[in-house]
Amino acid sequence: MKDETMGQEDAAQDAEACAEALESLDRISLDEIAFDDSGVDVQDEPETEAQSDDQDAGDVEPAEDEADHEDTESEAGNQPESDTGEETVLLDSLPAEDSLTRELPGLGSAPAVDETIAMGDIPLPSVPSAREAEVRHRKMSPKRRNLMVAGVVAVALVAGGAGYAAWNGYQQEQAATVAANAHTMMSVQIGVQAAGLDCSTGSKIPVQVSGQDSDGSSVSETLYVDEHGRGIKLLPGDYTLSIAASPIAADGTIYTVPTTKTQVTVKSDGQDLSAQATFKLKVPSADTVTDDQIDAAAKYAEEGGASSAAAAKVLQQAATARRDAAVNAVSAQKAQASRDADARHKATDLYQLDIPVEWYGKVATWQNGSTLCIYLGDDANTPLVTLVAVREGESFTPDEGDTVLGAANLGNGYTVYASGPVYPYVVPQTINGRTQDPVSTYPMDTAIELVELTTGNRYTYSQIKNDLVGKDGKADGATKLETDYLAQILLPSIKAQD
Asked: Phi/psi at 228 (nearest 5 deg)?
């Protein structure tokens, strides 16, 4: 009976201690709980810590109470359940259904851990006091501390390893992109200047490309660009560009191929290289185009510059026809110039000369021995200049109203004198009626033409009338104007007869 009473008292004391612990839990907020290594020790290794505490009798109570408690629980397990039905409320703020207590077998209304929290019969671990936590931390073995530090380091290494893995992955991705680009054809644009070229109707411009790509492979090929310089695709690398041959425009135009070569570096897709590589293709005179130029242009047009071999053939025929037409035109011009030269060439028994080109077709001539007269159109009464050969030592007197306008020594004992009216002076004076005895009167269109022919179109009639003649009626300025012009265009052509 005494033993049973003692067991009940021990059980009651244990229940009271458990209730106090639960009340302390209710008062402790989460922010006040220190999650240090002692808390981990309590949850993870309760038995080990209990054994360590039992071995240190100087710091904690002996384990006799625990043994007595275990015996009491054992005895209490054999007692019949209490039917008192009493409950101990630990958290007044909680409703009855959230109570953390349940009836322990054999202990009547002793507090117990709710099954939803204690997971069955597992008791809720007690929270160590501050002193116990400090003691346990102090009693922690160096080996355990090292293990914990190693764990923290391991976590840091794992986090660092993850960051390194991410960075390494990014680097690998970039390297993969660079490697992929190194094997990707890049479109580039160059500068081209070719007047009148439309590659949609003509052929494209063949560009010779040589160099080395990013793989170290040598490159030598012909690519084609349109009139805007677009159409080249290359792998990244360093290249030398030049124009291989002329394109052919739809009208058959052949261009002069520039001999320049330009070095470029291809780095990215859509790169504009016109600042480093611009080629100017000039249009030469069509009659100077050779068969070799046409053949070369047709060859590249057939190989890729034109839409088909048939189209290239049509362009070649257009280029040949254009060149032949130009050659024929030039030949015709030369023939006409030869005929004109023959017509302009005049000869007497003592000298010969050429009618000025500016006068040709506007003047006519009559000849009498060594005297040659050049007159306006079909009006023999309106001479521009009369040429007379005079033996050295003899004098020359011009006709009435004429002035000596110049002379040419033949070198064979004769001198040819040029004389005639000073039309830049006579015509304006005659029109204005300021002369007493004018040689003749002239219609306005004739007067203008006479002034223009005798001055080489360097001055208009109005300029002659208003500025060069002057209000005083002197002919000095007008005379000099005509003599200077004849000395330039007529007198140098007068030569002794062969």
From this structure: -95, 0
- The maximal CA–CA distance of the chain, rounded, in angstroms, is 188
Kindly give the residue spans of alpha helices, DSSP state H, lying in 345-443.
Answer: 423-432
DSSP three-state, residue 126: coil
Task: Give first-to-last CA distance, the chain, whole Å.
Answer: 176
Looking at the DSSP bridge assignments, the partners of residue 213 are 237
Among 100, 129, 137, residue whose Cα is nearest residue 117: 100
Which of these, 156, 168, 257, 170, lies nearest to 206 by C-alpha position?
Answer: 257
Q: Which token pair is 10?
A: 């021990």
Distance CA 255, CA 249 (A): 9
For residue 293, how many other CB atoms are within 10 A of its CB? 19
**Closest-CA residue to 372 (of 401, 395, 392, 352):** 352
Alpha-carbon distance of 36 to 127, in angstroms, equals 13
Pairing status of strand 186-189 against strand 191-194 = unpaired
Q: Which two tokens stand for residue 41?
A: 């020790």
Tokens linked to 454: 């005798």
Contact yes or no for 105/81 (Cβ under 8 A)? yes
CA distances from 120 to 91, 107, 117, 125, 246 (A): 21, 17, 8, 14, 97
- For 446, other C-beta atoms within 10 Å of its C-beta total 16
Question: Is 315 buried (19+), middle (13-18) or exposed (0-12) by CB count in 10 A?
Answer: buried
Per-residue pLDDT in tens (0 to 9) along the chain, 498 residues = 445 555 556 555 655 555 555 455 445 444 444 444 444 443 444 444 434 444 443 444 444 444 344 444 444 444 444 444 444 444 444 444 444 444 444 444 444 444 444 444 555 555 566 666 666 656 666 666 666 666 665 666 666 666 666 667 666 766 656 655 667 899 999 999 999 999 999 999 999 999 999 889 999 999 999 999 999 999 999 999 999 999 999 999 999 999 999 999 999 999 999 999 999 999 999 999 999 999 999 999 999 999 999 999 999 999 999 999 999 999 999 999 899 889 899 999 999 999 998 898 899 999 999 999 999 987 888 899 999 999 998 999 998 888 899 999 999 999 999 999 888 777 766 655 454 444 456 777 787 788 888 887 777 767 766 665 554 555 676 677 778 888 888 999 999 987
